[in-house]
Amino acid sequence: MLKSKKGILKPKLDSGNLELEIGRIATIFKKAGLKEISVPSLLNSSDLVDLYGEDLKLRAYTTSDPVRGEQILRPDFTVPILLKHLRGNSHRAKYFYSGNVWRRQNFKSIIPNEQYQMGFELFDSKKTKSISSDVEAYLLINKILSKYKVNSVTGDVQVLTSAINDLDISDYKKTSLKRHLWRPKRFMRLLDLYSKQKISGRNNHLFKSANLLLWKEKLLGIESFYGVRTKTDIKERIEILEEELSQNLIASSEKNFLLKLMRFHSSLRQAPKSMLSLTMVGDTFRKAIENFEHRVELLSEHIDTKTVKFQVIYGLTTLEYYDGFVFGFQFDHGKYPPIAQGGRYDSLCSTLSKKGKSICAIGSMLRMDFLRKT
Amino acid sequence: MIRFGLPSKGRLKKQVENFFSERGLELVNAGMIREYLAEFKGEKKVQIILLAASDIPLEIKKGNLDIGITGRDLIFEKILDWRKCILELKQLDFGEADLVIGVPQFWIDVNHLDDLDEVAFFFRKKYSRCLRIATKYQNITREFLIDNQVTNFEIIESQGATEGAIVNGIADVIVDISSTGETLKQNKLKTIEDGTLLKSFASIFVSKNYYKKNKGDVELKRLLDQLVLDI
Q: Is the domain of A374 the same as that of A347?
């Protein structure tokens, strides 16, 4: 959460400037072939909670409505635009948006509760187009912000997930690790548990065979079951845990590699080579780095990638639902939160899309409240 | 006039009355037919207002009450960042209750929050929905579970008889107040090891705003002195 420090004032906006800036950016979007899209400000709560989990209610404004049920004030544009796009027939599309989003903020935050955002979402059905869309998205934001003194940080969630996929462990362990990439504390706990090097009291019971046998015995003696979770569900889970007992643990060399990778940062130009030298090079990781390198090469045709920062875990805790290339732009003076953030969210698309419709997507938003004439 | 809010019914009301009589303060009806107004015998400067314990936090925050006695669980639940507007004058030795997670006893594989998270994930995969948690304490529950990295859960609002929500098919897990654990047991529920959200008890709360403005007031000082007195 961004806190205001002494000397940093809440941004005061001159609406004239804001409107000029909105017009300028809309023109850039249109010239790039993007079409304006609008979505409602009031969204159905249960759809969104199902997607984001209860975290959403810590950030979004909920309303009570005895007729329509709980409604939520649009906390971002991405999900409603994706849902609207999925309802249509087209596969490829380039949209831009402009409007308010509402988010509860910590009392010290300098981000307005009602913020004006502009941004875009690029959809394509072909996975092969991903890298060129990544580049297109980054360059579009770069162009818009070129009149400001800004710097950018990039990241790539794919690098991490591919490294996890290469570990010599069961799919169960891989799934758990990937599922908690966004929650560092939990992720480290799992990494410890699965490598058995340091086991905290909180989770050591999971893999104790004695416990599992005891549970099985106990389960046989129970007669009263109620609720949705069945006896079979419990038995299945115990069996999975039992099976895991005989499965590989993460080797210490693997764990060290993962930890090194998570700490890795360099210039974007340097990143592909340096990451390969961290060793333990499996096929999936190598492929991810190849894609990464290709993206850097394409970007280098337009910008100096030596001056762009790269950090493997950039945005992992704040950029929810991104699962590939991510980026953020910040003012050089460093006082404000990132003024633009974006990234790839293919798995969100596949979660939400109906069968037979495969969609890849990348998008970015601009915090207009912080963009002023300089 | 000092406006003092007290719970209007239940065990908490009796315990509060005891607490006062130990300090020589006797609650009497305000002399009218209204049972929700009272005063201390021989003390005209304090207006006692009887209301639901769960309404006391917000009324202090809004400035309708200057002082109030209620459970800490209710303060935590009803007012985010309550320490900014409310002063905790004295912690009392009654009204003890823990806010705990209750799961069916036959969930023998669930003993920690990490288990709960994994089961919630299985729920998502198998039943295509989140794990449902029924509670009156939505805010505390949401914050606690997110802080502890539990995912794939959905909170179902329950205004009472929460312990029945699982048998009724409304929820899979509950979060509720438990003082002895007896109600949980009767409903074939159990707690989990790291599943205590809050250890609650009654406290005396004072509006910060009111206190700042009336610090010098002799009547207020006398009342507060009497309240903090250890017997």
A: yes
